[in-house]
């Protein structure tokens, strides 16, 4: 014959068994949220650092003209001999709009060549974007299929690569250029690449 105290103990045991999976789930969820928010995604490592830029010649953005001259696509010879910034962008990318004025300012530094890879975009939309936000690019290659993005190890747009005179990737910035990371990260990387022989 069970007593009232046995029934209370048995009820507490059942509640614990029911709550245990919930407690474990909440603990795992909290761990994932903590790890998701930890760290700066712009500092994701890249296996391409120090290696030659991928050999991905790209056709020009159809109909893009600057000062009456068609803007060329990307040839691998464009990435040697000068320090370059390769900017992967798209018209549908909201952060690309935010970094556009900073790219225009960066293009004023004649020691650095700004090259664009238009990623998975429609030519008419890409031209409209450049018409609205300006054209900092000495060359723009179109990557309609996303194949070049895979070769470059692109996680998403925008992404930026500092290329040394030797054609090797010196630095990769995941995410948009901001006023803060332009001064604290990119400019020192450019100076380092410019000083290298």
Task: Spell out the blueprint of helices and strands.
Layout: H1 4-37, E1 65-66, E2 69-70, E3 83-89, H2 94-107, E4 112-119, H3 123-133, E5 139-143, H4 147-152, E6 159-163, E7 169-174, H5 179-195
Parallel strand pairs: 3-4, 4-5
Antiparallel strand pairs: 1-2, 3-6, 6-7
How is this structure best summarized?
The protein has about 200 residues and is an alpha/beta fold. It has five helices and seven strands, in the order αβββαβαβαββα.
Can you describe this structure?
The protein is α/β, with parallel strands linked by helices. It is 42% helix and 18% strand. It has five helices and seven strands, in the order H-E-E-E-H-E-H-E-H-E-E-H. A five-stranded mixed β-sheet has the order 5-4-3-6-7. The relative contact order is 0.17. The mean pLDDT is 88.
Query: Which range best describes the helical content: under 10%, 10-25%, 25-40%, 40-55%, 55-70% or over 70%?
Result: 40-55%
Order of helices and strands: HEEEHEHEHEEH
The end-to-end span amounts to: 91 Å
Structural class: alpha/beta
Low-confidence regions: none
Q: State the major sheet.
A: 5 strands, mixed
Shape: elongated
- Number of helical segments with 4 or more residues: 5
Task: Give the beta-strand count.
Answer: 7
Could you tell me the strand content as a percent range? 15-25%
Estimate the mean pLDDT confidence: 88
Gyration radius, in Å: 25 Å
Strand order of the largest sheet: 5-4-3-6-7
């Amino acid at each position: 014959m069970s007593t009232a105290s046995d029934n209370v103990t048995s009820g507490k045991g059942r509640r614990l068994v029911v709550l245990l999976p919930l407690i474990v789930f909440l603990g795992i969820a909290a761990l994932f949220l903590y790890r998701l928010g930890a760290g700066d995604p712009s500092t994701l490592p890249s296996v391409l650092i120090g290696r030659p830029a991928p050999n991905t010649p790209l056709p020009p953005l159809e109909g893009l003209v600057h000062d009456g001259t068609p803007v060329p696509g990307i040839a691998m010879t464009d990435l040697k001999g000068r320090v370059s910034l390769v900017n992967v962008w798209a018209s549908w990318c909201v952060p690309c709009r935010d970094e556009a004025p900073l790219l225009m300012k960066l293009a004023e530094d004649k020691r650095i060549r700004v090259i664009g890879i238009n990623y998975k975009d429609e030519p008419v939309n890409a031209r409209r974007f450049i018409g609205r936000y300006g054209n900092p690019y000495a060359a723009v290659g179109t990557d309609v299929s996303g194949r070049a993005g895979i070769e470059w190890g692109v996680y998403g747009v925008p992404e930026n690569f500092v290329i040394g005179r030797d054609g090797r990737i010196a630095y990769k910035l995941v995410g948009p250029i901001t006023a803060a990371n332009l001064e604290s990260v990119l400019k020192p990387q450019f100076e380092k690449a410019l000083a290298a022989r």
